[in-house]
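Reopening this ticket.

The earlier resolution said the output was attached, but the attachment link was broken on my side. Pasting everything inline this time so it's all in one place.
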Amino acid sequence: MREFEKLNRLTETHGELRPGHGMISGVIALALAILCFLGVLAFHFPEYLTTPQLRKSYDVDLIRQLMYWSMVIAGGIALFNTVFGRARWLAFGAFALIALTLLLGGHKVPVNDFADDTPYIGLDWFILDLLGSALIFVFIEKLFALRRDQPVFRPEWQTDLHHFIVNHMVVGFVLLATNLLVHKLFGWAAKDGVQGWVQGLPFPLAVLLIVLVADLVQYWTHRAYHEVPLLWRLHAVHHSVKSMDWLAGSRQHILELLITRTLVLAPIFVLGFSKEVIDAYIVVVGFQAVFNHANVSVRLGPLRYLIVTPNFHHWHHSQDDEAIDKNYAAHFAFLDHLFGTAVQSERDWPARYGVVGDYVPNGFWRQFKFPFLWNGK
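Inline output:
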């Protein structure tokens, strides 16, 4: 039981994991074991736990190999730490999850035919995105850190991880709801002639156009979140993060997610961009959404006046006086310069992040309830 108590305390704390005590390797082993356990659940219930849009792209044999070697690596690390007396409680947690994964069939669980139109939660999308984002962006943050003293497990990381989990798990609901709203509200605006012209554009030009159209909508939507008090109740949750890193952008109220995605997808649907162009846009927006919140020292010289960089977006999250209600663009920084909302400062980077007054509570559920309970004082 002591091991479970220590694991529980670990999830409630923050700070640097110091090398030499088995903490770093133990956390890696535990994380791999958790992902393997979630993966075996997805193998057992693919119709309910996997995303239909991703199923068509899977190489199941490759996924089985990844799960197998993840279990081997996690088990090997846990065994090493157990033998040498390093963070054995973390090793115990990893062993327990690996054993449970193997009892459930491990990487050999057969996947039979199943219905493709069942309600689902995006467990596979959560696993892939968490693993990919963590591996890529933690590495980038360590190489090009803006604030080198900021640990991976910085204050309030648990809240942002909870947002990350929920927003990925409900991907099916979000897609269904946004598609329904877009078709119901904006279907009348779709014109065959315009869509034919858009679909006839060269691929690179079409990608630039879809990003520009989406960013124009996002700019004015984002600006409305700041200037309309009722909408600010939702958006204040996103701005309450006090430390910027790859996970910080995940802090977003589910209602804001629905509203923004519906409004951004509307012109994409009306203009009739092809699936290949939309897929390219999803890659761009997915990368920038994470990278521009990351703890990296990137400014890109004169290009920062054209493209949104971490430096540009960090200013948007700042409490500093010159940054309030500025830098709304998500992709093209020139939009803020064009509309007069770009930050003008003699300093390269902001000093403080978060909401002025720090009135948004910490914790996923309290932030979920906040827009409905806040009295505005």
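Reporter confirms the inline version is readable. The mean pLDDT is 89. The chain has 17 helices and no strands.
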